[in-house]
Every structure is written in C-alpha cells, then in structure tokens.
Amino acid sequence: MVRTRLTAQERHVQLVEAAVTAFAQGGYAGTTTDQVARIAGVSQPYVIRLFGSKQDLFLATVRHAGDRVQQIWREAAAADPTLGGLGKAYKQLLAERDLLVVLLHGFAAASDPGLGDAVRQCYGDQFALVRELTGASAEEVRDFFAHGMLITVLGAMRVLGPDAVAPQPWVTELLSTLPAADD
C-alpha cells in the first residue's frame, strides 16, 4: 500500500478536524491532546509540535468552527441576504453538529483567561457578520442569535438535526413556538 505524505497544511487541517470531534465529545477540560492524536492517527508529541499546547489547539478549533459557521452564512446570504435566509442555513449547521457543540464548549470555557478573548471575538465576529450580510438592526440580530442559540442547544441535545432522538412532549411544544422555516 502506498502512503501519501500530507503537507503541513493538510496535516494541520486533519488535526483540527480531529480536534472538532474530540472537543465536541469531551469539551475543553475533558479532552486530551492524546485523544486528538488518536483520532487523527498521529502521535501526541506531533500534535504538541504543531500547536504548542492544548489551549492553542482548542483556540484553533474554535476559530475553525466559527469560520465554518461564517462560511455557511455567507453562502446562504448569497442566495437570500436576510435573517430568514441565514436562518435556513441552520439545517446545514445542524448537519455539522460537532461544530456547534465545539462553539458551545468554547462559550462555556470563556471564563478561562487564556480562552476568553478569542471566544468573545469569535462570537462578536459572527454578530458583526450577520449585521453586515443582512443589514438587520442590532435588536433583530439579537433575536436571530437568541433563536439560533436555542436551536444550537437543541441540536447539541440531539432533539434537532439529522441524528435527533424521538422528541419528548416539551420539545414538540417548544418547537411549535418557533417561526416556521421554509425548506
């Protein structure tokens, strides 16, 4: 079997993707660089050599997740530059559930002095992008983010999205209160 050697950039991407999986499962505190290495099929010292520390790897993972969310919103805005158009993109985001879960772990870890500024910047960049893409007011974007956070939490709990469990009565009732999204 011929093994293709990855470039440094390809290996970096591979490790960040493995980190998305690992950090989505265990969060920042509960994930080790060894777990990321095992998912990526590399050694733990190699992960440290590329990223320097678990903290730097987590920050790269949060940036990756935030960038992917922004990419999805930009693509959605190209077709429909409204809050509704971006809201429809949540179906795609729910299909990439681990990205949303990583961001939730980032928000939860934002009290850590080494993480907080970068996580807050990620959230602020998303807020600014939605305003830029849609021209919506700060209040409208706040409401968009409030609904989005609810959808994100429900997706993290697997009550929404492609791998959703059977809904409990409260889920059905709660979902009935949300604005209907066109498919």
From TrEMBL:
The family database entries (InterPro entries) matched by this protein are listed as: Homeodomain-like_sf (IPR009057), HTH-type_TetR-like_transc_reg (IPR050109), HTH_TetR (IPR001647)
Q: Where is the HTH tetR-type domain?
A: 9-69
Select a single GO molecular function from the record's annotations and give it: transcription cis-regulatory region binding
Q: Which keywords label this protein?
A: DNA-binding
User: Which positions make up the DNA-binding region?
Assistant: 32-51
Q: Tell me the superkingdom of the source.
A: Bacteria
User: Per its record, how is this protein called by name?
Assistant: TetR family transcriptional regulator
